[in-house]
Structures are given as structure tokens and as C-alpha cells.
Amino acid sequence: MSTTGTRRGMGGTPVESARTAVGVHDEISPLRSVIVHRPGPELERLTPDTRNQLLFDEVLWRDRAEAQHDAFSALLRREGVEVLQLRDLLVDLVRDRGLRAQLLRRAMDPAVLGDIAVQDLQGGLAALDAPALVDVLIGGITVGELRGLGVDPRSIALQRVGEEHLVLDPLPNHLFTRDPSAWIGDTVSVSAMAHPARRRESLHLEMIYRHHPRFAGTGGPRRILGRDGAGAATVEGGDVMMLSPRVVAVGLSERTSAVGVERLAADLLADGVVERVIAIALPHRRSMMHLDTVTTVVDEESMLRYGPLEALETFEIERAGDRLLSRARPADEMDEVLARGLGVQKLRVLTPPLDPYAAAREQWDDGCNVLALAPGRVVTYERAAATNDYLRSLGIEVLEFDGDELGRGRGGPRCMSCPVARG
Question: How far apart (Å, rounded) are the C-alpha atoms in residues 143 and 138?
């Protein structure tokens, strides 16, 4: 159910917003509301020297990436989806002085930056208006830019580096809003990210869910699961897949650990959010960094799958009294386990008839990473042409957009979207 009315934004500004009841109970119910992030100045920090540290294989062309993301957002709006821009949500937050101070305190860790460097940063950012501050939080800031704000750095660390040294690192991976959080029913899990380059992203999402008026009262999650200081317990949203209202699958991937899956399962099962968690043991390869890079749900009984992917061992985790039970299932039972999770007798596996070379190219270009708008209706990259033609031959409606530049970041339509309401 949706209602429309005037709410007060951070700082008391009236904001018109279509309110949609939140919650994600499967992968295919009609998509109602989604968080995305339009790439911006942070892509200017992506260079041949910084790309590895920032987890990118290539350097993206900002103008083209922005234009393609605009087309993606426009497509979603045409389909009746409420598109929430991450940057706008953060700007709303930092207009509130108390929330601004809290976010900056948590974003600027003295153990990472140094105590005096944190003081230098705080001095430079104090006078910035909300949009400019958010641009720094996402885009980063160099020593030279800090000087441009009137700060003569006193930090020993900052005095020993050049003007182009980044004091606060950029967050180009914010483009992939699927990963820093995942909605599981009416609960949201804020991700404990595997790599330091992405950990501030989770802080931004947590602050939005806890404090933005869009997620207040009945418009917010019933519970927020967070993983500050999670240690080995990493979970990323690209590995989380709601198969049905009572079953969630989680990939044991390069970035989501077994410890993280067990911790998440303990929280979800104790709270009754789901009754079963299925862990899927993925190969630990860059091309398969998350579960949704090799398979996604397209309708009530079907999953699109990368053809050369071998059958994988799975683990079904349930709760019995106050204990968690884990049952290992051999690889040849994977499809049976997934069918039970979807609540169907037999899983329909959709694998485009491609030779190994073509299949590997389309998987690298996120051909399997589709976003379902409704059962049998998906958003894809145009360049995954063979996969798109195959899906259409099976009666699945495919909505394409040109994402060749966005795809250079190794993420597709599902990666670039964080659904907060379906059905």
C-alpha cells in the first residue's frame, strides 16, 4: 500500500514523497522502491594506480557512466518504481547538525587516519554545506583540496605526503548499492564488508535506515542488523538472495565468509525472520565475487545461471530450540535444495546455449546479473545480447539499457540496485 503526502526533511524542509511500505520477501514480486547511486566525482579518483586498491579492474569514463546510470534510473521510474538516490538521502541527513557530527565522527577513524589528521579534516569540513560535504564523503579529499578549504595540515602523516595524496579515500563502489545492505523480509542487514575500501559505504546505509525520515516509523525496517567490528564475519548483499518469504540463500564467496553466514543465520533464525538459510559454496574467483554474478531469479520457478558453473555444495541452516543445525548437501543436490527454497517441485535452470568462450564473456559482462521487476520481467545490459535473446525465446520480457561503461566496474543491474520494497 502506498500513500502520498508531505513530510518534513532533515532541517524541517517540506519534502514530497510517495511512501511505500518497506520489505523484500522474495526476488520477483513487483519492485516498488529501490536505492541507487548515480556515479559522480568519485570516479575521477579512479586511475591506473588506484584501481586495484579501490577494487576496480578498469578505469571508468565518468560522463558516459553517469549518462548510462541516468538511463537505468529513468527505465525504473517508467516502470513505476520509486528511485531513491543515495546522495540525496545523505544530503538530507547531514543538514541535521547532530547527525552530521555523528556521521563524521564514525567516518573518520583515528586508528586509520591518525588523530591529528582527523582534527585537520574536521576543521576543513566544518563550514561546508550539506551537498559539498556529501561530495567529500563519497568522492574523498586530497591534501591540496584540504588546503583549499583553508586548513594548513598539522598532521605528521599529512605533512610527509604530496598535495595529491588522498586524506579520505573515495567510494566509487557506492555505485553498487546492493552490497552495503540487504533487506530480508522486513529486516535489513547492514553489511560487514570484506575490504576496507568499502566499509564506509555500510555506515552511510546504516545512518540512512536509522535516521532518514523516509525510513521512520512504519516506513522503516522492523530491525537493523549491524556488524560493527565484525572481524571474520563478513557478509555482502550481492550474496544475499530471498528465494521465498521464509528462505534466504547466501553465497559463501570471495567476500562473504562462512563465519558471516553463521552469524547472519543466527540473527535471522532467532528472530523468526526466516525459517531456513541456504549457504552456497561458490568458487573463490574474481569473476564470481558474489552469488548474483552467476545466478539470479527470474520467475516463480526459474533461475538464470552461468552455464559452465559446476554444481555446488550447499548447507541448510535451521533452528531447533536454542541451537542452530547445519546439514551439508552434496553438490548434485543443489537444484533440489534451491527448488525447496523457492517452494517449487522442480527448479527450472535457464542456461543460454553458448560455447565456453562466449559464456565466459557474457558472464564477465554481467549477463546473469538481472534485476527482476516482476515475475518473468527483467532488466539487463544491452551487451548481454545472446543471454537476452535466449530469455526472450522462453517468453521472459527483457528490458535493456546500454551499460557498457557501467559494466566495466564488474556489476550489473542487480548489483546497482538495493530494493527496499517489493510486492
Answer: 16
What pLDDT score was predicted for residue 229?
55
CB 413 within 8 A of CB 177: no
CA distance 409 to 23: 28
Given the residues 107, 146, 379, 415, select the one marked as catalytic.
415
- The single residue listed with the C-alpha cell 564473456 is 361
Sign of CA dihedral 117, 123, 126, 129: negative
Grid cell, residue 6, equals 508531505
130 burial level (CB within 10 Å; 0-12, 13-18, 19+): middle
How far apart, in whole angstroms, are the C-alpha atoms of residue 136 and residue 133?
5
Binned at pLDDT 50, 70 and 90, residue 53 comes out as confident
Question: Which residues are CB-neighbours of 160 under 8 A, at least 6 positions away?
Answer: none
* Amino acid symbol at 26: D
Residue 354, pLDDT > 50, answer yes
137: amino acid identity, one letter: L
Do residues 265 and 273 lie in contact, with contact meaning Cβ atoms separated by under 8 Å? Answer: no
Which three cell numbers mark 18? Answer: 510517495
The Cα–Cα gap between 73 and 53 comes to 28
Q: With CA atoms as reference, report the closest residue to 377 among 75, 7, 65, 10.
A: 75
The verdict on whether 418 is a catalytic residue reads: no
pLDDT in tens, 198-251: 889 999 999 999 999 999 887 899 999 976 655 788 999 999 999 999 999 999
Cβ count near 332 (within 10 Å): 9
- Cα separation, 420 vs 18, in Å, equals 13
- pTM of the entire structure? 0.92
